[in-house]
Every structure is written in C-alpha cells, then in structure tokens.
Task: structure prediction
Amino acid sequence: MSLFRPTLALLAASALAGCGTTPAVRYYSLSTATAATATTTAPTAKPLLIEVPPLALPERLVRPQLVVRTAANQVDVLELHRWTAPFDSELRDALASSIAARLGAVDVSGGGRLAGQPVYRVAVQLRQWEAVDNSRVEASFSWTIRRSDEARNLACQWSQSVPVGAGIAALAQGAQQLTAQAAQRMAASVSALDADAAAQCPA
Result:
C-alpha cells in the first residue's frame, strides 16, 4: 500500500497546481476615453437634455460575456472575455455618454430634468450585432427621437461593418469603434431635429 502513497500525493499536488493557473477573466468597455472631448456643438446657457431608455436588442446578447459567431448557425459565449456590464447596459451607457458629449448635452435618463425644458428621447433598437474573430463586427441600428414638449420626432436607421484583426481584444476594439460611429449618427440626428422640425436623417 505504501507504494501508492507517493503517486497519490503527486496527483494531488498536480491538481492543486492546475487550480492555481486558472486563466483570468478579461473585461472590455464600449465607451471611449475621448468621449468627454467629443463635443461638436458649442455649449449654451441651456444645454440640450437627452434621455436614452433601455435598449431593445436580441435576447442572446443580454449577457456580460462576449458572443462571437463561429459558423453560420453557431456562436460561442466567451466566459473569460466579458463586457464591464451586461451588453445591453454597456451599450446603452456608451451610446448615451457619447451622444451627450458630442452635443454638449446632459443625459437625464436617470432623472433630474429641468422644469420647462424639452427633452429629446432617443429610443434605440439594435436589430443585428455580429462579431466574427479575425473578420469584422457589424451592426444594424434603428432609433426614434421624440421631443417631449411637441410632436417633433424623427426615425432613422443605420448599418455598418468594421473590419478587425485576430484576437478578442481586436474584436472588442472594433465593437467600440462601431458604437462610437453609431453614437455620432444619433447625435447628428438629435442636432438636426433640434434645428428643424422637418429634419431628415443625416446621410
């Protein structure tokens, strides 16, 4: 019986060593560090107020893990690669902060509206989102903008694909770039509607 004890001890040590090398979870953000300096509209005494409610998006994306397409009918949910919040919240926060920064606006989605000042409500639907490693990130958005104090409104849609290199970090960076481009379009839509009640979606 004593001959088996070293072997068992060695197996136990190997198992403990394996537990110590568990890969760490990596976290990614859709927000850009330059959002705070992205203002494209001169600040005024009364900045625009915007509201971005929770997004509508495919149920398979409502999770913190990155979802990567690996085949026409197959996706992988990456447990070790995650957004800093569930994807729907991460995307909403990134869009809202970028839209507000580009317009010099105030995001009042969490409350704190000023009495008598109109709010532009930007309701966003993510109709498609595909991330393919070493290929692309593509998305299709639609959004409606309504002004709270009148019948002024605008409905737009936009699709785009961003090429990416190999690796999950490159995929997350492509997703961040695509989100910033979408926010730019949405901000331009708000600005157009604020200037003209009969505005059209920016080309």
